[in-house]
Amino acid sequence: MILTTLSNLIHQTAFFNITIGNFIMIGVAFVFLYLAIKHGFEPLLLVPIAFGMLLVNIYPDIISEPYVDAAGISHAGGLLHYFYLMDEWSILPSLIFMGVGAMTDFGPLIANPISFLMGAAAQLGIYVAYFLAIFLGFNGKAAAAISIIGGADGPTSIFLCGKLGQTSLMGPIAVAAYSYMSLVPIIQPPIMKLFTTEEERKIKMGQLRPVSRLEKILFPIVITVVVCLILPTTAPLVGMLMLGNLFRECGVVKQLTETASNALMYIVVIFLGTSVGATTSAEAFLNVTTIKIVILGLVAFAFGTTGGVLLGKLLCVVTHGKINPLIGSAGVSAVPMAARVSQKVGAESDPTNFLLMHAMGPNVAGVIGTAVAAGTFMAVYGV
To answer: What is the pTM assigned to this prediction?
Structure first.
């Protein structure tokens, strides 16, 4: 009996169920943790994602669905299954947008409306990836869900996956989107330097005009009305983004601003990150489809950065050198990381050049642009 008990205990360990694929994914989780902790690549995202990845490849039942056994007894699902449902229902992505709105100053975009053009140009990668995905054999809805990775916007990628019924691809798409968001400081600078000259990178932009409190209050209201009237399906994302920003700018709901931008935001990031990581079991992740998605995401991201920079160069010519093309790269919407990269690359050419606030305009415009792109796909496919 003792031997039987010991044998049962040993067979209950993960060693008898874990596969080579699980070991590979555990290794990937360790790499993500290293990048987040050692190098500081978006640790708020990568740490929970990596830990969810680690958990699901050791104990797959942590994301299992509820079921009824042969005896008719109901069993609850795994812990992260319930977190994941909030991704599928678009709850967590929408709350993330509210937090981003509450944390972000839209003043640079209001002060320089031309930033909208650069934010729109940076969506080039989305449409390039969409047609390329169709060429590689994905159906229209899957191609649309994959292409949003080009906006470098994880919540929008998850949101569109759920709306288009592509939850089977949500894990690879979300991990690719958040990975590329984290790797913005590595991926973007070579592309930015390739398409700009040293003289262009040294361009100093004039100080932005002061933006009144009234403008800041009216902006989220007007954008919500205009965008949601044209594309009602964007309301969960654009509406929450603008609601968060209205909390920030109206000045009468300080408690709501602090909650949305701090406590609530961090709680949502924990839920979203761990549930996204938990979708990356070896069985679901290690396949040809995932490889295609990762490659398409990189292509989309590269074209998005290129589109923003090239329009920045055009505007530089049109304005006779008043716009530094580097700020166009911030239109990919990874707030505020992409804007910081524009500042860093500009400072490498001229340490006295301060582009951060100018880059925040295209950066915020990119967030709105990616949400509009998602809404466009939903309208095309009748969602």
So the answer is: 0.90
